[in-house]
Amino acid sequence: MSTRVLRRDGTLPEGNEKVAAVDAMFDRLAPRYDRMNRVLSLGLDRRWRRRCVEELALPPKARVLDLACGTGALCDDLGRAGYVAVGVDRSAGMLSAAYTTAPLVRGDALQLPFPTGAFDGVVCGFALRNFVELNAVLTECARILRRGGRLAALDAAVPSNPVMRAGNAVWFRGAVPLLGRVLTGDPDAYRYLPKSTDYLPATEELLRRLTASGFDNVGRRTFTGGSVQLLTGTRR
Fold first, then answer.
1. What's the rounded Cα separation, in Å, for the pair 53 and 202?
2. DSSP states of 33-92 as a string?
């Protein structure tokens, strides 16, 4: 099975093809992933993660799972906010490059290795579009949350404002692949990352799926001119 994150005709992979391609990509990018995030987000990734953690609004010492934790940057933000963080990720490469002191577990978002109701909160940083079965992942997030637990998930978005949308296209679909080629020698991955927003449903559908998965008080906020979205919900 191909591990290209974009097919030869430039289209996005689906199903098992996508799973294999995304796994291979993140294992490959792991050693330089955080440094590239700083560059490609113009340093704004720290601010976005802080807003994500703030939206949890949980009491101190609450137990929070960082889903698709990567190298653990969001786990550290959770710790600084007074939460007890645990990270989970499919990518062995990402986990081996992690620097956080939070406990990390290798696991699949479709079958999280935690008991029902084990967590007070779940966060996810820019990974929703990488899951093949988003509905099943959201349902699994609801399963491991206690009643009243909180979900906060960051991801990329396409601005609704035409001017901002044009700027977003120039940067994320033009400059980002070029920088990826120059700085990492991996143009395929950095063509995929901006294009992968196409996997995400429209806003109304995303919120509907959150509700159907077991969440109330669902909401969406955007940052940086609409280029980043933060989805939230409270476990019913």
1. 24
2. HHHHHHHHTTTTHHHHHHHHHHTT-PPTT-EEEEET-TTSHHHHHHHHTT-EEEEEES-H
CB proximity list for 194: less than 8 A, separation 6 or greater: 156, 172, 173, 176, 177
Cβ–Cβ contacts within 10 Å for residue 234, how many?
Answer: 17
All structural domains of the chain with their residue ranges = 15-160+191-235
Q: Which residues, at least 6 apart from 175, have a Cβ–Cβ distance to it below 8 Å?
A: none
Q: Go through the chain and tell me how many residues it has.
A: 236
Task: Show the tokens assigned to 128.
Answer: 């929703």
* Whether the Cβ atoms of residue 12 and residue 192 lie closer than 8 Å to each other: yes
Residue with tokens 């499919």: 90
Domain range 15-160+191-235, its CATH number among 3.40.190.10, 3.30.230.10, 3.40.120.10, 3.40.50.150: 3.40.50.150
Q: 106-148 pLDDT, tens per residue?
A: 999 999 999 999 999 999 999 999 999 999 999 999 999 999 9
12 closest CA partner among 194, 181, 172, 169: 194
pLDDT, tens digit (0-9, with 9 covering 90-100), for 7-25: 988 899 999 999 999 999 9
